[in-house]
Amino acid sequence: MTRSLKDQYYVIDSPQMIDDYRCFRPLEDDIQDDAPSTLPAAGRRERAEDLRSQLAELFRAAGWEGDGTINCFFVPPCFCQVGDEENGDTWCTTIYHVKQSNNGTSWLAIPRGFRFVMPEGFRAKKS
């Protein structure tokens, strides 16, 4: 199954340099739940390369020069809304990132309709 990202994501360049990589994960981490555990290692690598290729195309169309390592980070469902509804499931939303090596520009591929939200909390007393 080939994932099509072109219509699902848009790309922005970040005016601030993103230099703290503690929250970033290797791109391959995004396919681990998507690829059944019965899929051989070669199949997983193929899916990761397909994802990397599609992301490179998106980033290049936005102005990325092609250097740097594409990675990702995951936004927990309690902190995001995608489209018109809250992310009611328990899956994280993936945002992809690449930092251009020659000038430090960061590029982010964000799902269309994505918005950060702050959780209200159900049991915590508000002070």
Largest sheet: 5 strands, antiparallel
What proportion strand?
Answer: 25-35%
Q: Strand tally, please?
A: 8
Within the largest sheet, what's the order of strands?
1-7-6-3-2
The portion of residues assigned to helices is: 10-25%
Radius of gyration: 16 Å
Uncertain regions spanning at least 5 consecutive residues: none
Number of domains: 1
Task: Give the overall form.
Answer: globular
Structural class: alpha+beta
Question: How far apart are the first and last residues' alpha carbons, in Å?
Answer: 50 Å
Provide the residue-averaged pLDDT: 84
**Discrete helix count:** 1
What is the chain-wise order of helices and strands? Answer: EEHEEEEEE
What does this structure look like?
The protein is α+β, with helices and mostly antiparallel strands. It has one domain. The protein has one helix and eight strands; from the N terminus they run ββαββββββ. It has a five-stranded antiparallel beta sheet with strand order 1-7-6-3-2, covered by helices on one side. It has a three-stranded antiparallel beta sheet with strand order 5-4-8, with no helix packed on it. The mean pLDDT is 84.
List keywords for this structure.
single chain, 127 residues, alpha+beta, five-stranded antiparallel sheet, three-stranded antiparallel sheet, 1 helix, globular
Fold topology:
Layout: E1 9-14, E2 25-26, H1 41-62, E3 71-75, E4 80-82, E5 85-86, E6 93-99, E7 106-111, E8 114-116
Concise description?
This protein has one helix and eight strands.
